[in-house]
Write a structure and sequence with these properties.
homodimer, 234 residues, alpha/beta, Rossmann fold, five-stranded parallel beta sheet, 8 helices, 12% strand
Amino acid sequence: MAGKSEAASRRRKAVVLLSGGLDSATAAAIARHDGFDLYALTVSYGQRHAVELSAARRVAAALQVSQHVELAVDLSAFGGSALTSDIPVPRNRSLDAADIPVTYVPARNTVFLSLALGWAEVIGARDIYIGVNAVDYSGYPDCRPAFIDAFERLASLATRAGVEGGPFHIHAPLVHLTKAEIIGRGVELGIDYALTHSCYDPSEAGRPCGTCDSCRLRAKGFAEAGLADPALAG
Amino acid sequence: MAGKSEAASRRRKAVVLLSGGLDSATAAAIARHDGFDLYALTVSYGQRHAVELSAARRVAAALQVSQHVELAVDLSAFGGSALTSDIPVPRNRSLDAADIPVTYVPARNTVFLSLALGWAEVIGARDIYIGVNAVDYSGYPDCRPAFIDAFERLASLATRAGVEGGPFHIHAPLVHLTKAEIIGRGVELGIDYALTHSCYDPSEAGRPCGTCDSCRLRAKGFAEAGLADPALAG
């Protein structure tokens, strides 16, 4: 209650990957609930929907992060994904399809976690939060627990902090939750999901398309949670 | 001899991390000698010495790479290294010092390999070459064989290519060589080291300083190989 109390100055730091989407906003709120000071990292990777960046800024402000770094990495230089090139975003695709969709961005979460690791090392953080989820959307290989575990092992070998100090912890608090459970947890923690953005292919004005995988998973999640999506209000 | 022969079109692709320095040029020449078509990736990471980029272009041209991508990632947004911030580059430091020097860039090789992995997946390459070296310069944690092995394990878990196909191979052909051995190998393979650049802190005109760790390791390597450094001629 005393502003910068001694207790507050002893709080630990966590780097949180923040895309501006529903999942990463929830992961960030969980990190804060876990007692961390938040250092939010938003990676702009040449995706078409720059509207995500403004959502990330709104969420970072709402969560009162200690610092928010936006870093541009032009993954469109490599191509290969509907999110970084001219490949069309699929519409009304079966959400139960077992194949990896074209919205998969090659090595995206490996790149994101590597950048988060670099920043964590500089600021003296040992904890990194990422909002990956293997339940409702198991098509992406870099959203699986085995990937997160392998990165955690790598992190401690890759860094001065890992060699000279203790291990890093990669937190993926949503990995085993359904979308409805994620939304329920976020609402408990007071997230205003009106601030977030999920669509892979929004209009110029930033309105979600309603037919891409991400829009439909979000809609299904709110429906199963028995809630209205506040981002669609008005 | 028939230009684009059928044999040539069956050649495998490798992504090679190319900084423009002596080590990465040698690693690239080894990859070519191993029979790969080269896809060179130069990551500009906010380092002070943009002169490296022109060296990378010269080396890429000399090695006749199939494609050269230059990607900007502003690691100076994080700070924490003499190569990305205002921390001074050390002069005439003991090369036998056991500590990790301030020229260490947090998570640099993890970031580089992640980006190389993304590109490899897009172009259908399974092989990535990186010129790390654990002998003459063991101060960097992300130059050790254990790090390379951990990244190789991660790569196959992280990607669609790894899930649906076979594993990735991270080649670190210099990891157990001394600088003199690296130079000897490169000379055998016909590298013109005049094209390369190693200094951490060159003059405006691109001349090496002669006193940073990188200049002194390079000088020691040429001396032990019994050769003159062609980059210092004229």
